[in-house]
Backbone:
């Protein structure tokens, strides 16, 4: 038997159960990973609450983890038992001691990246990779706005933007988070609890506004984000921390300056093994070079996944959080 977190119904943190399950043997094209660290992400909360429906209940939870290959299914050639590995995409079930998933979703770790760092950075780091390197391929010299700049994704984005020579303006909710974002490389920060974000962006850019807004907050910041863009700027809406953006009138994009908008996801970019490996290699190179370091500011036992999710949803965390089986 092995332990895992599961939910039999959607709802608050109280629906998460820590249970014994029989480990699933890997089928053709699959591997089983013995997790040594599990990543905590907002998308896990979306699944728990029912915003993102699960295929069936009861269901496992989580898509990100790192550890060693425990068993290999037929036809798998790029992985072997004992390999140090990480993953960031489905199926659900990473909140567990053992997780079976398609081998094409699993990548080997280089010697310079430990399992805790991998579990804390795979989903967030690959997200930043597609945001900054693919959704809008930043060349250097651009000015961008990044919401939640002191969070897990934001902390990596600040460092990656600095490495690219990009001026990142980060929104934060406290002086402590502002200091953290600036330490990580933010060019400037805006405390949205005290400052008018649009007016502050206008001041910082001498009225030019920004080339791109990266918005993981969703409903609460939608119009503010649009108002921070220069003409023909790009709005990248990649999360729903405050709820999904709904009822969008496309005419607003015209009125605010012929704006562009996109709603990307990791699965839309890392959609083949080749693309996943290329993205992972770039992330690992940034980690090994020291241009990006991962602040694992919170560690929780796997059994306390509900408490960890409450802290994340309540904006009580900074950097990254991992669950330890």
Residues:
């Amino acid at each position: 038997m092995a332990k895992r977190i599961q939910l039999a119904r959607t709802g608050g943190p109280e629906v998460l159960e820590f249970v014994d399950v029989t480990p699933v043997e890997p089928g053709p094209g699959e591997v089983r990973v013995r997790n040594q660290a599990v990543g905590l992400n907002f998308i896990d909360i979306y699944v728990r609450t029912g915003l993102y429906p699960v295929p069936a209940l009861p269901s496992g939870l989580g898509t990100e983890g790192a550890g060693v290959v425990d068993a290999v299914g037929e036809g798998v050639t790029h992985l072997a038992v004992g390999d140090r590995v990480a993953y960031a995409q489905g199926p659900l079930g990473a909140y567990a001691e053992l997780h079976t998933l398609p081998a094409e979703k699993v990548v080997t770790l280089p010697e310079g990246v430990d399992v805790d760092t991998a579990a804390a950075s795979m989903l967030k780091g690959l997200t930043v990779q597609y945001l900054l390197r693919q959704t809008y391929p930043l060349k250097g010299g651009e000015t961008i706005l990044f919401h939640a700049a002191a969070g897990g994704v934001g902390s990596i984005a600040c460092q990656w933007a600095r490495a690219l020579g990009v001026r990142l303006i980060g929104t934060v909710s406290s002086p402590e988070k502002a200091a953290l974002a600036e330490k990580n490389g933010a060019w400037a920060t805006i405390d949205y609890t005290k400052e008018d974000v649009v007016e502050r962006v206008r001041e910082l850019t001498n009225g030019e506004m920004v080339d791109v807004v990266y918005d993981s907050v969703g409903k609460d910041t939608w119009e503010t984000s649009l108002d921070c863009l220069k003409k023909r700027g790009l709005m990248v809406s990649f999360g729903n921390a405050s709820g999904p953006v709904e009822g969008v009138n496309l005419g607003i994009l015209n009125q605010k300056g012929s704006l562009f908008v996109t709603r990307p996801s990791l699965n839309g970019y890392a959609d083949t093994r080749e693309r996943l490996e290329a993205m992972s290699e770039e992330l690992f190179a940034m980690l090994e070079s020291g241009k990006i370091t991962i602040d694992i500011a919170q560690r929780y036992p796997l059994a306390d996944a509900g408490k960890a999710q409450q802290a994340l949803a309540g904006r009580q965390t900074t950097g990254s959080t991992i669950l330890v089986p």
Notes: The chain has ten helices and 16 strands.
